[in-house]
Each structure stands twice: as C-alpha cells, then as structure tokens.
Amino acid sequence: MDAIDKVLFCLPEYERRALSDFFASGIERKKVSELRLRADMPLSVTYAGRNVSVFCGRELVLGTAALGGVVSRLCEESVHTYGSTIKEGYITLADGLRAGVCGRARSEGGHVLAVREITSVCVRIPHALPRVGDELMGVIYEKRRVHSALIYSPPGVGKTTLVRALAARLGGEGVRRRVAVVDSRGEIYMREMFAHTLCDFLDGYPKGTGMEIATRTLSPELVVCDEIGEGEVEAVLAAQNTGVPLIATAHGESFASLTARSGMKKLCEAGVFRFFIGLCRADGEEKFSFDIKDMRRGLL
Amino acid sequence: MRLAGAFVMFLFFTFLGVYAGGREKKRLAECEAFLSLFEYIKNQIIFFLTPTKVIYGSFSNDVLEECGFLPALRSHENDAVYHGIWQSALNSSAGALHLTEKQRELVADFGDCIGKTNGEIQANSFDYYIAELKAEIEREKSEGTKNVKLYRTLGLAAGACAAILII
To answer: Is A104 on the interface with B (CB under 8 A)?
Structure first.
C-alpha cells in the first residue's frame, strides 16, 4: 500500500471510489505531489505541478463533518496525540507522509490554544527518489569529505525529497557515515530508503534541541536538518563549532532573498555553509537543476 | 421410566435457572471489565496522549480476553490504515458478550469517542460514559443479586412442577 492508497482509505466511501477511479485513469502516481481537501469546497490533486479538480459527475466536495472524519482517520483515531502539531498546522504520519491542516483556531497572546474545526487538509505525498541527489553528491562530497551545504527553494520544489536522498546515500552507500537526521516533522524518514543505513533520526525534536543532542550525544559524521529558520540560527552556529558538517534546507527564492534575512545572513557570514544550493524543478519533472554558490570560490 | 423422565425434567429446569443466573453474573463481570478498560483508556489518552492503536497492548483483563474483545482490538496494531477498530472488535465478540442492549450501546458510543477529538473533549465524553456505566453496574448489582435468586428459584420451581406433572 503506497502513500496515496493510505490517504484514499481515510476518505469517505464515495470520494474514495471517485479518486480511485481518477488514479486508475492513466495518472502517474509518482507525479502526484499533493491532495487538498477543503470543507465544502472542491477537492483537488496536484499532479505534475498543476492543481486538478476531480469530477465524478460533479466536483468532489467534502463537508465539514466528513473532513473531520478524514482527519481522525489520518491520525489513526489518535487526534489527541497530534494535538500539539495540529496547533502548529500539521500532522505527521508514518513513512514521511505529512498533512498540513488549518481551520478555526482559538488564540490568545499570539499563540494558538486549540483548533476547534479543521477546514483544510493538504496531504503531501512523499516520493522515494534515491538517485535524485546524484548530481549534488559530486559537489558536497569531495575527497571522502562531506561539506556543509544549505539547500534553498520556495515551498513544494523538493528540498525534503532531495535532502532525504542525500541522507540515505551518505548513510547507506560506499563509506557509510553516521548521519544524524533532525526530523522535527517526521517528514524525512521513509522505511524503504533508510532500512539499511547508519542514520539516526531525531523525530519530533525541535530543530535546535535536536541538533544539540545529535552533536553532543550521537557523535555523528554529518547532521541533516530540514527547513531551518531564524529560530535555529544559534543552534546551527553551535553545531558548527563541533566541526560536524551540516546539510540543511531553508525557504528562499534566491540567494539574495535568502541572505536578506538577518539569521541567514549571519550563517552566511559565519561561514557555516560552504555551499548554498538553489533548487529549481520544472513542473512535473523529476530532475532538479541547481544554482550552486561555493562560498570559497564564488558561483559554480 | 416416568420417575426418570421427571428427574431429567427437574434437572433440566434447575440447570436453566442456574444458567440464567450465571448470565447475570457474567453481565456484571463484563460491565466491570469494561469500566476498568474505560478508565484505563481515559488515563492513557488524557495523561499520556498515547496513540490509540498502542493503548490496548498494555491492558489486560481476563473477562475481555476470554470474550475475544481485547484480542480483536490488539489484532489491528500493525494495520496500515487504522480506524473503526472498536466497532469491529465489538461486533466480532458480540456472541460472547452478555451485555444488555443499553450496555452494548454504551460501550459502542464510548468507542466512537476515542481519538476523534482533542483530549479535553474526549475527557468530557469519557467521564459521561464512565458515569453511565457505573450507574449500570450499580443497577446490575442490586437487581442482579435478586435476579440470580429469582432465576434459581424459578428453575427449581418449574423443575419441581414439571416433575410432579410427569409423575
């Protein structure tokens, strides 16, 4: 059962059948990146980079109660377990499957206290593409040494897919390395890719704490962390002092926009990362193109 | 021959009375078993936020084991898709349970609340169903004792009547 089937089983009977028919109608599953469900609005699938509505005589629309049921089933009837992450806007499921959620929240003092009704669910379908980082391996892995790199792109381009592939290769092929993966949202780990690697996963740890624990207690040869932000700058700087290379990702459209953020500028100036790698991918394509900036030599 | 028939009839009705009384006792035991399961689930969810699918693995109760309810709940721990397990476990063990219709509904409704909402709302629902089940247990205890005696007496009396009629 793949990730899409897993999500389909969480849908009500009618919608499940309609979507099963949709996926059986010549759709390439590996090009499906998202499934979006909205209360009382049309359900859509992001296929080959385009948002496609699904028709079954009429547009598929889920009611609020039905969407609540889907969330409950996605959480394996353990909504209480996911309470804290739902407040932060996501649910992490097994095997790298993640659902972004939003709805009507009760807030106080700038903090979300509870989400009382979920109105949108965006299920991101993870893809195991182990060879997707091949081109980049030649850059960050040199003379049996891994160099620190920050991979940036706008959301949805494939940073997590790429960093997953790099972690799996560095921890599982050739001279296998002890890789500590700080997987705060449980998005990176996929059993099929990491079953035979030397990767340690810090699943659910806040990124800063995870990096600190990884470097202090796991003696890693490489730390991998997805989506670092301004809040993790100090932790990254501290991790750098241990001498362990770090491969991380961050949101950013260009190097200029990335370093316009004070935290990222600080990391850049401190020389934490040797490579800044901009990521692009044409809609629906598997292959990435890279815009690599070597801080020692300038743009490659 | 007639005496033997009368004796068999007497034994049959007496056994029937004892059997009916036994069902009352089993019903009470099952209610108490479900009550301890309810309270265990409530603690696991409210205090430990335990994922529903792993809650049942660490709970043991002879009554619920024997009727197959707990094994049915546990059998889904490794399912890729996990939902509707409580109801299917209840349905699969329905034949072995002795609960009244109302008690069965109460157990089913409790299961409907598990994991569907956040902890606070679940806690309120759990408290309601626990209170309801406690009331059922009290009722079973007071009525059950009377019923056990009644069924036994009826069994004996019916057996005796049947025996006298045959003789």
So the answer is: no
pLDDT at position B106 is 95
> Closest approach of chain A CAs to the CA of B117, in angstroms?
6
Task: Locate A139 and state its tokens.
Answer: 């850059």
A1–B85 CB contact, under 8 Å = no
Q: Which residues, 6 or more positions from A51, have their beta carbon under 8 angstroms from its beta carbon? A: A36, A44, A45
Kindly state whether residues A82 and A215 are assigned to the same domain: no
Four-point Cα dihedral A197, A203, A206, A208, nearest 10: -10
CATH number of the domain that residue A83 is part of: 3.30.450
**Cα–Cα distance for residue pair A107/A110, rounded to 1 Å:** 6
Cβ-defined contact of A77 to B81 (cutoff 8 Å):
no
* B145 Cβ contact partners less than 8 Å away, ≥ 6 residues apart: none
Helix B101-113 to helix B2-48 angle, to the nearest 10 degrees?
20
pLDDT digits over B13-62, tens only?
777 777 777 778 889 999 999 999 999 999 999 988 998 988 998 899 99
Q: Which residues of B touch A73 (CB under 8 A)?
A: 81-83
Q: Which of A77, A84, A123 to probe by mutation at the B interface, max B CB count within 10 Å?
A: A77
Backbone angles phi, psi at A230, to 5 degrees: -60, -30
Residue A190 placed within a domain:
yes
* Domain around A44: 3-124
Do A151 and A107 share a domain, yes or no? no
Least Cα separation, residue A242 to chain B (angstroms): 35
A97 and A161, same domain (yes or no): no
A129 in a domain, yes or no? no
**pLDDT for A299 beyond 70:** no
Contact (CB, 8 A) for B151 and B21: yes
Compute the mean pLDDT over every residue in chain A, rounded to the nearest whole number: 87
* Boundary of a domain, candidates A77, A105, A124: A124
Q: Identify the closest residue of chain A to B51 by CA–CA distance.
A: A78
**pLDDT, tens digit (0-9, with 9 covering 90-100), for A64-106:** 889 988 999 888 889 998 988 899 899 988 777 889 999 998 8
Q: Which chain B residues contact residue A76 at CB under 8 A?
A: 51-53, 82-83, 115
Number of domains in chain A: 2
One domain, residues A182 and A82: no
**CA angle at residue B54 from B114 to A104, to 5 degrees?**
40
**CB-CB neighbors (< 8 A) of A6 in chain B:** 80-81
Same domain, A14 and A111: yes
pTM of the model: 0.71
Tell me: do A288 and A158 sit in the same domain.
Answer: yes
Is residue A111 located within the same domain as residue A141? no
